[in-house]
Input
Amino acid sequence: MKNGRYSIGILGLELLMVAVSLLFFFPLYMTFINGFKTYNEVLTSTVALPEIFQFNNFATVWKQLRFFGVFMNSIIITVLSVAGTLLISSMAAYQLVRRPGWVSSVIFLTILSSLIIPFQTLMVPLVTVAKDLGLINSIHGIIIMYWGFGVPLALFLYHGFIKGIPRELEEAAQIDGCSSFGVFFRILLPLLKPITTTIAILHSLWIWNDFLLPLITLSGKSNRTIPLAANIYFSQYTNEWHLAMAALTMAVVPIILFFLFMQRYIIQGITSGAVKG
Output
């Protein structure tokens, strides 16, 4: 904008952003429209709209995958994993920030160092240890594993955010007789709402769509998540693309709605954690 006028440069930048947005939207469009096609239509006219919308694809997926069961598994795993990660990482970050020293620094850096370790290098020892602890092929087992993998990033974000919260707020509450737990849950936790929402969104997207960890830890059909159950449509000799796209559409709709409802907190939370402290 120059002198209140709409310039050609701004118009070009907006058109570029629209083009980039459409580029990112294209895979979602492909998944959605191909879920309403027949198998032959998916192969012959992948990008085009379906000639006749095949709603029976979704009914078939619902029956074959026992979709309600795998949907509930995904809900339980995602909700409990995210809730546990938020609680553990927020309390740990609070203690590490409010008890400065070399011990806290070593603990903080040790936990953060796990972020640079590729998951693929941990697969074999993870399965071995989980098997010894009885965590293989169980909902509670994979939830505990998600806590372990999710805490480092959440701890890092909480740590930066808490450093910007004045200690005087906690001291005033303690003078009024508030316990340590009371200070955390009544004073500090409400102030962490922006970064908590951000972490919840990021971890929900990750856990809901994760395929590899459930693949190596959940072998029973009763414990499958949606991405793992949808994998039955991909085999060595045949790929039922129309049913796979229908299954993926049913899988992404809930998390997209959740993201659209909560996305306004992402930038707010990340920027707050980045500039404070």
In short: The two ends are 34 Å apart (CA to CA). The mean pLDDT is 83. The chain has one domain: 55-275. The domain at 55-275 is CATH 1.10.3720.10 (MetI-like fold).
